[in-house]
Each structure stands twice: as structure tokens, then as C-alpha cells.
Amino acid sequence: MDITEFAGLASATVPDWSREEIHGFWDPGRKLLRAIRKYQIARQRGTIFGSISSKYWVLSHWFWSIVTQSEIHLNCTIGGGLLLPHPTGIIIHPSSRIGPNCLIFHQVTFVGAVEVEGHCDIGAGAKIIGPVKIGKHVQIGANAVVLQDIPEKSIAVGVPARIVELSA
Length: 168
Known about the structure:
Helix content is 26%, strand content 20%. By secondary structure, the chain is of the alpha/beta class. The longest helix is centred in the middle third of the chain and has 21 residues, at 48-68.
């Protein structure tokens, strides 16, 4: 079995923005992402309206950060299509970069300069201690501790994380 068959067919380069659409009032993960994205847009605008608007989105980010008990910096580089199905306790270092169409479960921590390329699934409680680079179409198991680079189309599990292969 090929890892791309196992992981699905989501693109690692083209963001699927429909994954971030808000579905009702109580959708904390998507609302936290919206606050981050709208803040970044308002800051780039640079006008007086952008400055006022960015203050609103800072407050929105603060609220959803408290609700989710997550710490995702307003200036993080996050590709489109990020899914946070259970956004509780996620900590992402400001110098981390996340590619498009990734999936991050609860209690995940990025320490230092972590670069996650497109379409990566990161299991609950995983810790990624940088500087490391996670390739495209990678799956990291729950509670794994990643201390080194993970190549494309791999599955990493354990403490410290090691690459495992799927049996045919």
C-alpha cells in the first residue's frame, strides 16, 4: 500500500480553503484560524482602517485562544486548508511554518523553527522539537516526539519518533 493511498488525495501544494469554512456559531478551531488570517490581512493593508481592524482581530484571537487554550501566534505562517478538529492545547512557535492542507489534533506542540510541508497529519499530543523539517504527505502518530527531519510520504511514531513502513 502506497502512503498516498493511505493518507488520501489532498494536495500538498494547492490549499483547499473549504476545509476552513465555519460551520455554525460554535466552531472554535476555524474561528481561531479566521482571526489569525484576518489579522494578517488587516496588518498588510497598512491604512488607518487596517490598523483599527487588526485590533478587533487581536481581540477575537485572544478570545478564541482562551476558549481553545491554544497558543498560535498571530504572525505564524500557515498554509490554507489547515484543520484543527480538536483545537485544545495546541502550541505553535512563532517561527514555525505550516504548509497547505495539514491536520493538527489536540495537545500538539511545535518547539522552535519547525517546517511542516503540505498535507501532513499530526496526531494528538505529538511534540515536534525543531529545527526540523517534515516532508509532504507525512503522518505523525499520537504522542510521538519528533527530533529529526522526516522525509516525504512517511509515517513516524514513538518516543523518539522513528519511521515505520506499512505492510502490504
